[in-house]
Design goal:
By secondary structure, the chain is an alpha/beta fold. It has a single domain, classed as 3-Layer(aba) Sandwich (Collagenase (Catalytic Domain)), CATH 3.40.390. It contains five helices and 14 strands. It has helices spanning 63-66, 68-74, 157-160, 170-181, 220-229; strands at residues 20-22, 32-34, 50-56, 82-85, 91-92, 100-105, 125-133, 140-148, 153-155, 167-169, 207-208, 250-253, 256-259, 279-288. The strands form four sheets. Strands 3, 4, 5, 6, 7, 8, 11 and 14 form an eight-stranded mixed β-sheet that branches. A two-stranded antiparallel sheet has the order 1-2.
């Protein structure tokens, strides 16, 4: 995840390289899923319901101290997505490329350029989530959460308090980033939402201020998003509109349309598109919004 000072665009701001589509299960929901670039009907998803994660060796935080950022999502009753530590200690070496990792960046934050655009990383980003996924199907392989320890004071707000104007509640930041890891994008602002007001005190709202901790707890919109993607007892689901009926991945039927088997909609199959490799996506980041005085 990437946290930044809050701005109009949202308290935390994610830098995204994919096309996003809003999905509303009910008029009050504004959760947004991340999509692949070339096939906007294919949203990002995990084919497994148990995701392994760990804290990168050398990061000064115990896995137990941040586990709540993951269980906030897995504890939602209507989903059966789960997280487990990849090792008994919870720490993993950088070389474990098969495991999603959380780690701090202490220096050279801006130098960690966007591999797709070549642009330097936003210095106001508190964290970013880098997701590796199939560029055709959206199937996620892993995701790493990088936290900007160079530009911000990362604290436990409940224990440490607001120690500076750059103090960021680590659990609030990580809970947001885990949402990106799961395939969610930023919640759509209510004034762009055609269905009326939306509660922007959602974990996946895009902005965060210093010394804010409420993003630790999921809002109903966040829960609706995770349960749409990973409903308990059912397979994962895409999030978005059906593709154009003239598209080569859809065939017309007398009473509707059905997905081409190669796309694997609503199944755990690995479609042919995975053979084309994995696209690395800079999934998101939080920005600190300047306060108006």
């Amino acid at each position: 995840m990437a946290l930044l000072p809050m701005r109009r665009s949202g308290t935390f701001w994610l830098i995204i390289a994919s096309v996003t589509t809003v999905m509303w299960s009910t008029p009050s929901e504004a959760f947004v899923c991340k999509h692949v670039e070339d096939y906007e009907y294919a949203s990002l998803y995990w084919a497994t319901r148990t995701i392994q994660w760990g804290v990168r060796e050398g990061t000064p935080v115990e896995p137990s101290e941040i586990a709540a950022a993951f269980t906030a999502w897995s504890d939602v009753p209507c989903t059966d997505i789960r997280f487990e530590l990849a090792t008994s200690s919870g720490f993993v070496p950088e070389t474990r490329t098969d495991v999603s990792q959380v780690f701090f960046v202490w220096e050279g934050w801006k130098g960690r350029t966007n591999k797709k655009t070549g642009k330097p990383r936003d210095e106001h980003a508190v964290a970013v989530t880098i997701t590796s996924y199939s560029p055709v199907t959206g199937r996620i392989m892993k995701g790493d959460i990088e936290v900007n320890a160079e530009g911000f004071d990362l604290v436990d707000l409940l224990q440490d308090g607001c120690v500076s104007n750059k103090a960021m509640d680590l659990l609030a930041v990580l809970t947001h980033e885990v949402g990106h890891l799961l395939g969610l994008d930023h919640t759509q602002p209510f004034n762009e939402h055609p269905q009326g007001d939306v509660d922007l005190r959602a974990t996946m709202a895009e902005n965060i201020d210093a010394c804010e901790g409420w993003k630790r707890s999921l809002a109903e919109d966040d829960k609706a998003g995770i349960c749409h993607l990973y409903p308990a007892g059912e397979t994962w689901r895409y999030c978005g509109n059906l593709p154009n009926q003239d598209g080569r991945y859809v065939r017309a039927e007398p009473f509707g349309c059905s997905w081409d088997a190669n796309v694997g909609h609503g199944t755990n199959q690995v479609p042919w598109g995975d053979l084309f490799g994995w696209l690395v996506l800079l999934a998101g980041g939080l920005r600190l919004r300047p306060r108006v005085t």
